[in-house]
Amino acid sequence: MDSTQLALLALLLGAIIGVGASLLTLIALRARERAAREAAGAVPAGITAVLDAMDDPAAVVDTSGQVIAISPTAPWLGIEKDAPLEHTGLRDLVRAARGGTTETANLRLLRGGMSSESRLVAARATRVSERYILLLVRDLSEQERLEQMRHDFIANTSHELKTPVGAVTLLAEAIELAADDPAQVRAFTARLSAEADRLGRLTGRIMNLSRLQAAEELTSVGDVAIDEVVASAVEAHLVQADSAGVELARGGDRGLYVRGDAQILKEAIGNLVANAIAYSPRGSRVGVGVRANGGVVEIAVTDQGIGIAEADQQRVFERFYRADQARSRRTGGSGLGLSIVKHAVSRHGGEIRLWSQPDRGSTFTVRLPLAEAPVIDSPVKKKKKRKPAVAGAQAVKKGRE
User: Fold this and answer.
1) Minimal CA–CA distance to 133: which of 165, 105, 95?
2) FRET partner for 340 with CA separation of 20 to 30 A, picked from 22, 37, 76, 150?
3) Torsion sign across C-alpha atoms 265, 269, 270, 275
4) What pLDDT, in 10s, does the model give residues 106-139?
5) Radius of gyration, alpha carbons of the chain
6) pTM of the prediction?
7) How far is CA 173 from the centre of its chain?
8) Would the CA dihedral through 30, 34, 39, 41 be positive or negative?
9) Spatial distance between the Cα atoms of 281 and 234, rounded to a whole number of angstroms
């Protein structure tokens, strides 16, 4: 092989090596670019583990608003994985955080699913990579509810207690001035006792309402027989009905059960019965009916009284609201009964409905989830358990004889 051939061969080998080196360099550059893109598009390490351990709703969202990863409680606010972020306020917050700043805002959001309940939340959005943003949501509804309850309790209590407290003070002064007149003293004393009773009832109802609002869940839950609830409510108001000249009747299905607190339900239905009697004319009738409608127990309290105007029907469940101020003053109503009923029914997972027309009467219907009747031991089994004791007693008696 001459020198020319060797030179050509060396040139060829050099070209091959140069092309190979260029290809390897190009492949390496492209691999690095691809790795960089994948790193930018991947959820940062540890974020998923942090989300799994969080109690508050949280999510990782990409710049287009698509949810990539969520915490276990995120669906509670309607935030679902691999789905677009639905809440407008949260989308705006994520959009504002794209520039690299941390954005915070207090928002009012609807819960996920079919619920129409709104929740006050504190939301925070922070960019964790070029593509992803971390969204944190903290529920402030409980704090808001407690603060509102405290404010309403102070405002309403101070307002409502002024009347009976003022009356008691004036009557005490009148008794002192009429000390030499036994007849006047007796009259003022009777009125003083009536105002004291009114003050006691008002205070008790305020405390009942506050107790119902203080906790989101019932503390004592068991199988509650609707027969006992209705019977207790009716029997407790027989004297009131007799004094008002109103007939009190009950009917409907028997043997139905719900889950809840029996005492709270008795007080709630009792409040409806008391209201129906108070707003019914003499000679009319108040009925309490029960029926099972699908998976719901309906307890309807119907009267033939003055009715409620349509403009007032949405407000009668407000605390201290009275549709008929004059009648409420005559009957000593506090305006708390229906509010207590609403909160009691809500704590049992139910609802209350109202139908009413002026001069035709009203029907308040409490709807509660139906529960299965509890299993009760039959008397036969109890009798069989007592037989050995009886037989033993007879044997002892026989031995003594």
Assistant:
1) 95
2) 76
3) positive
4) 888 876 544 456 788 899 999 888 888 999 998 8
5) 37
6) 0.49
7) 46
8) positive
9) 18
